[in-house]
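Moderator note: this is an archived Q&A kept for reference. The question asked for a predicted structure of one protein chain; the sequence and the answer are reproduced below.
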Amino acid sequence: MTPPGWGGRKPGVEDIQHLILKRICFLDYTPGDRLKEAELADEFGVSRTPVRDAISRINHLGLVETINGVGNVVMELPPEKITHVYDMRLHLAGLIGATAPAQVEGSHLERARGLLAQAHQLGGQVDSRQYVIVNDQLNTLISDLIGNSVLRSFWTQAYYQAASTWHRVVDGAGPEVADALIAELVDLETALAERDIQAVGYVQRIHIGYGYARIKKYLFKETAKQT
């Protein structure tokens, strides 16, 4: 039986991959949790093959590891891998608007304004899950503005790797991350209002850099204490 939410069709490998990645980023699956192929296959109404293929793709991102005698286990990215991810995101952001740019539409601006309203509602006691959800919607908006399909694919992969760390950063940074998200969305709103797709890339590059600085300040500092 096909589960609801798939428009009457069975989910494919990419659908399953994205849903599992979202669950990792939203902490529905936490580091150390096992991903059981049989249970996921039953949930999605598919055979184990597409589930296995989806998990294999996530394995290549470093967010799941297959351990002999244990199975597929959700992992945290080590600091070195996070550094590589952010270096890549900074380079990719510079390509937005430079390679097959999408046309900025009024609907993009309205979506940015809606996200800005949500960001303002995060308040002083930032809910880490809601923060990640708003960022996920923001990433969808940015992805829709990337006309180059290959760039969009790399962008999405790097986004999920980065997003898997954000719960831990929010726990340390608190209201600072909400203020940063508001600032990013204000800048994005301005770029979209001007229909300037290259400025969208510049905004992303600047704020990814700021985000990486918070990673180093809160997450890497925490990792150093643990070791």
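Archived answer notes: The longest strand covers residues 64-67.
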